[in-house]
Each structure stands twice: as structure tokens, then as C-alpha cells.
Design goal:
Chain lengths: 423, 531
Amino acid sequence: MRSDTIIIGGGLSSLVCGIKLQKAGQRCLIVSAGQNALHFSSGAFGLLGKLPDGTAVKEPMRSLSFLPEEHPYSKIGVDKMAGYVSETPAFFESCGVRLHSAPIAGEGGFPANGYRLTPLGSLKPAWLAMEDVTLLQSKDNIPWSKALIVNFFGFLDFNSGFIAEGLSRRGVDCRVETVSIGDVENLRKNPTEMRSVGIARVMGKENNWKEFGSKVRKLSAGEDLVILPEVFGLGDPVIIQWLREMIPAEVMFVGTMPPSVPGIRTQMRLKKAFEVAGGTFLSGDTAVNPTVEDGYVTSIHTTNLGSISLDADNYVLASGHLFGKGLESTPSKVVEPVFGLDTDFPSDRKTWCDEDFFARQAYDGYGVVCDGSFRPFIGGKSVRNLFVIGSEVGGCDSLYEGSGAGVAIMTAMSVAGNILSGK
Amino acid sequence: MEEFDVIVVGGGITGAGTARDCALRGLKVLLIERDDIATGATGRNHGLLHSGARYAVTDRESAAECISENMILKKVARHCVDDTSGLFITLPEDDLGYQDTFVKACLAAGIKAEVIDPKEAIIMEPSVNPDIIGAVKVPDGGVDPFRLCSANIVDAKLHGAKVALRSEVVGFIMEGDTVKGVKVLDRSTRQVSEYYAQIVVNAAGIWGHHIASLAGVNIGMFPAKGALLIFAHRVNGMVINRCRKPANADILVPGDTVCVIGTTSTRVPYEECDNMVVTPEEVDLLLSEGALLAPCLAHTRILRGYAGVRPLVSADNDPSGRNISRGIVCLDHETRDGIRGFVSITGGKLMTYRLMAEMATDTVCRKLGVDAACETARAPLPGSDGGGLEETAKKIWDFPTMAQKASVGRFGSRAAHLDFEDDKSGVVCECEEVTVAEVDAAVERLDVCDLVDLRRRTRVGMGTCQGELCACRAAGRLAKATGRAAKAREDLKSFMRERWKGMYPIAWGETLREGSYTQWVYSEVLGLNED
């Protein structure tokens, strides 16, 4: 089977890269093993929330020059970063994913970071958010004084108490209520079904979300703000808008424990956009047995397709970090399992982790070693037609910086651009 | 000011057992624990229900105590016991001649040891190393030390005992050479109170060394660290031991959904007893030795590493601590040191806690002139008065759910007191099937004050995911039950820190992967470390 580009991995970076290439006329194949970080998304994308030295970032584009040269953003360069950042909202809109930034612009018209209310009542910086999520302009000034937090009766993955505590710390008067809906009550009979996606499926039915909306409307008299769990609009986010219209107060959706309904919706929409553009998406399959000759990948195989060889002009590795299994670890080393690419992990495992759970973990900052065009190395030798994108790229600690989605989108756009320009 | 007959210091299994025994004999009891129940060696061992076979050759007295207690616990603590039986295997590199010595010593100590064909042993226990050249079946089993400790405390309270957790003994109230009571620091309020009693029993495990020193008494304690690893699957059905003189990492014990390999034995400075960390060297040793017992351990995911300190009383200069008897040491400080009203119970092991409690209580009763017989060898612990799991569950509910059966597994017949109405049938911890009902009951009735306490009572967060999702659910429920969300949020932080402490020494493969996912969820999605 012949493609122009084969992308290994089915998450955010893979789909952005695939859609860009496919829309530019290439024939792309994505090999996806299964779930990815979008399934566990916060509902918002971060570009840069903190510099490596810990300084909080308000305007990501103004902070790029403070990043070290090995950082993926530095490799892309400020000018190209500016182009990709500007392009991102329209790009996602064209894929059926509406993203918004906080309603304040920084220097050069680039969005400044807004703040997302987390399921535990904290405020985290974010660049762009999915439709459910409300981005606040400031951490200190919440524009509402009275909030009603509504949960489904018996739903343990949304903790009204923590949200109320976080908001009351910021001077918002909170009230907590629960609502029962017949179909959700039926879910409760099997407790493991009583999770975000299970409820979202049930709430996709018109009579259910309408019943929920009218119950919340009755409860919300006199409230400025109504907070609901992110369990709506799994298939079609228009339900989110309709609920906002039904309820006579500002409606804010706050995340649940994983899986993430807005994240899964985004993944499904991007995948559909890729397929509508003509791309081929192999689900539940794993790339294996590549052939690499003279610094070029000539073919790969997959576990499901067995002996059928897949070949392409260019290959993109977007299979994730440790959690996504793009990197695998043993007691003495970290390897990239498909090609055996060079990583920058030290061999002494004592240096990978900090003993404090909340401290910065060194392993988050390690990844595949890449050149300025995100080409990796095998045994120190460059592979010319293979590119690495997303969290697998070394040179930055995305969890610490709050740059996970940003690195995924920026490296994907950059590599797609390089492939298309034949660099 | 409240006066007691006896104050027991230490909320481990020895203290809990002693408090229960004293209460059953009609004494007015106060149990004082500086942290939570089962935080020391009680919660940091294999959870092995010894048959005594391990000590048969080297320590006949301990072996005899073990088998006697083994048979008692199988009756009185049945909901804490997993009667798996065990194997002592001989590997090609071991001396098969030792098996004879071993079996003879077992039989002499009253332990039913049965030599079986290695082929039969492999059929009985498919995870065992297929290269074995010898196998002996013994009545080993598993015991849940948290459950056992909790059941003893529940019973002590049912018989009128008072329990003060998070209360640290900071000094003794003395009148000349007589102990009159203790000064206790409440760790939450930071206030010091005085409690009076006719006798104070020091059952503080390795920390008993310090408690004794507060009364001016010296007990030469021997802190010997033992490190263990928990695997994410119950790979073995029976306990597997090496048939040789006790050495490192030669016992593999199945327990609930997991199995545990251990231990090492290293002398540690007394000052380090509060902060035991498993080193990479210990991990490597446990893994390589463990794989000799059950080869699949080499590629089974490790859940966490942990270490405890054996409270041995030093007798000689043995640097490993292995040749010291696990024997029980019951000291009446009046005859030993001239300090009246003070008794220490130490040495021993989880397996012989009941006997230790009996000996300590006998000493207390003798000193108080109380004539009451010990009941604990016959009276079942709360929860253990019913039949088997299925039978007990059916007595409570017509059609018990999986989660309700899991509750019976943990609480025995006392699961009847759980309330599954309304939203309480919701599952908090999917790995261990812990329901809201259990979490609420633990908060209301079992002195739970934070998430780590909750874990010790209910197994929340002890399963495969190590608290990834359930910790947050449990914290939410704790916030609701206590009405203190800010505190529950801080508890959640401590809980995640505590879980990671056991994970980072073994952070590679699936454990590192799980760790990195958990860090993503708690930092990125939940923002737990942010304002």
C-alpha cells in the first residue's frame, strides 16, 4: 500500500498534521493504536503557561524568546510560530471544532492566556478552549458573585464541593444542587456505567437534555452563574449552546474525571475531518517492523495487516510520550519502540523521577532527540524522511510548562509545512 | 480528668489486640496512637499467615507459636484470613537434603508438612518455577493486617475502650518510680493533655524504644528494615517459600487482587525508622530473587515498593537481624527496672499478635489483681462470626451485588451495617470495588480522618490504578461527609504524595506509564497543585 505520508499515532498532533497534508493534496495514512491524550483532555489547549524557570506566562508569544534553543518552539522560530498560532482557530473551525480564547488580546493581537476553572476549583492558564469551557480573563477577579453548581444525583466524577470551595475562596457565594434524570438513574444500576461518557450518551437524547435544562432553569432563579459538568454534546456540541440559551444565567461547564467529553468530541471531529478530506485512518493497529536504509525509511508494517508492506515518501511519528506508549521504559533505559530512535533519557533511572509527586519530574522533559526540522536520529545518524511531532519530541517539559497541546499543534503544522515544501 | 485502668500505647496490631483483650476482660482502656492504625510494621509486611514452617528449623519456639496462632486466627479472624496454604520449594541450586531436615522440624513443631511430587506442585500452583526439584505443602495463608487491626479496634470499642488516634505520647506522669499516666500531644490541635491509668502498656513496635526511654527505661531495640514489592496481579494462588534457611526475598504471598514479594533485611539507624524508602538495589534484589520463585514476576507490573521496620529486641551483634528470635518479649518494668505501672510488649510478629496481647494482658491483670480469663482464642472478631463470604452476603441481601460481596470480603458480617440506599451504591474504587457506603461508614464509624486512613480501612487506592481516579472520588465523598472541602483537597495531595512514594523506586515500564498518566490528570486536568 502506497501513501505520500504515513503518520504513526492518532492523537492531536497526528490529526492536525494529517488534515493539513490531506487538504494540500497528499494521500495520508494514519496508524492509530487507540486512545490518546485528547481522551483525557482538560477541555482547553495550552500554548505556554510557565517558562522552564517557573515564571508565569501571560502572553505566550511574547515569552518565546526566553525559551532554550532545544525547545520545539525555538526550533520552529518566532515568525512561523506567529503564523501557526494565528491560523489555529480557523483551522480547527474548518474541522468542525470551535475554539475560543480569553476575550483579551496581548501584543500583536495574539491572545493572552485565560484561566480555566478545574474540576478541583483551581484556575489553570489556557490558550484556547473547547466550546464547553469558559476562559476567565483574570485569576483574581471573578465577574460573578452567586453561583449554583448542579450535579447529577450519584455522579461521583464531578465534585461540586471542591468547585464550590475554589470559588468561595475567590469571593463567590456558592450553592450546590443535584438533579435526577430517569435515564441517568437507569445507568446508576450498573455503577461502572455512571461515568462521564455514559451520562453524555444518555444526555444526547433531546428529551433528556431538555428535562435537565428545565430542571436547572427552575433551580437557577437569582443566580449569576450556573456550573454544570462537562457531559453534554458528545456527538453534537449544539446542545451546549441550547442549554446556555435555556438557562437564564451565565452557564459554565467544568470538567469531570476522565474520560473527557469535550476531548473525545474533538478527537472524533478531527478524525472525521481527516477522513472527509480523503485520508485513511487505521484504528486499533500498531506500527511495527520498519525498514530503514541509508538514512531513509522505506516501509513499515502493522500488526493487523501482517505481511502487507506500507510505504510512503515521508513518515511522521506522533505516537506520544510514555503514557501514549510512544516511549517505553525498562529499569535501565527508555526506548522509542518502533524505530529505535535516539532519546535523551539518562540511563540511571534514579534521575528520571523526583520523590515528590508534585515536583517537576525529569522524565517529562526527555523525549526523542530531533534536529531543527524535527528529524530524529538512529545511533547518531539522521533519518531524512522521518519526522517526530507532539509529546514525543524532546527538549521541553510540556506538563510543567502547560504547553502540551501547543507543542502538538505547532510541531504538526511545522512538519506538515516542511513535508509540503519538500524541505 | 479521666482515669483508666490501662493505657495502651501504639495502634498497630499488638496495641489493638492488647486493647481488645483488656477490654474483653472488663478493664477500662484507652488506646493511644500517634498517627493512624496500622501505620508501622503492621501495615508494612507480607500479610503472611505463617504456618510456622519458615522458623521450624531455626527457631522451634516461634514455629510452635505460629502454628498455634495460625489455627486460632483461621477461626476467630476468618474474614481477615485467606486460607491459601503454601509451598516450600527446592530449586536446582538449593540443597534437596535440607527438605528432610525441614519436614522433620515442622512435624516436631506440630506443623502439618507434606512432601509432594514437584509435578503435582506445579499443577497445584501453576505460577511456581517449573524447575523445582522438591516441594512441601504447609498450612500457610494470607492475612489482611489492616482489616485485622481494624477489627480488633472495633471490638475493643464495642467493649468500652476509648481510642485516641493522632495522639502522641510526649512524656510520662511519674510519682517517684511509679508511672501514673501519660502526657499526650493531640497532633491536630497541638494541645497536650494528661491521661491517668494504673498501668501503661508500651506496644509501640520499634518506636517502643523511644516510649520506654521517656519513662527512663532502656529496651535495646534492633531496627531491621525489610523491603517488599507489590505486584499488580495475584500471580500465585498459594504462598510460595524457598525451602532453605530464611534469606532475602524468599516469600511470595497472594493477597486480595495482588501479590507481595519480600523481604530484605538490613540494619538501619533508629532515627530513620520514620522514613523508610526502598532503594533501587533492594528493588533489583527482590525482583531477581522473586523471579526464582515465580518466573512470571520478571514481567509482571510492579505496583509499589514499601519497607517496614521489624521491632526486634537485640540480643547479639548479628548485623542482618535474621538470627535473632522473632520471639515475644513481655517486660514488666517493675521487676526488670524498678519502674512500677509500666509494661512493654514487643518482639514477636503480626502472626503472634494475639498471643502477645494475651501475655501483656495477663501481666496487666496480675498487677491489678484482676482475675479474668483470656477470651481471644475463642471469641470471633467482629465480622468473623458468620460463615463464608457467599453465605454471609446472602444472609444480608437476597441478591448481593459484586460490590456488596466485596464489602463482605472486607467487613465480614459487619457489612450488614453498611447503608447502600440512595446514592450509596456508587462505586468509588473500581479496582477494589469499594462503594460510597463503605467510604461513608469508615468516615462515620472507623475514626477515619483523611484519605490515607481511608485506604487502610477500605482498600481505596490499593488496587491496580493506585488511586488514579478513586482518590479523587473518595476525596469528594470525604469532603461531603465532613463538610470540609479545603481539608479534603489537602488530604488528596498527601494521598497522591504517599502513593508516589511507593511508585517512584520502581518507576519504569507500566508503573512509570501509570505515574505519568496520574501526573497528567492531577496536574494538567485537575490542577491540584495550583491555586
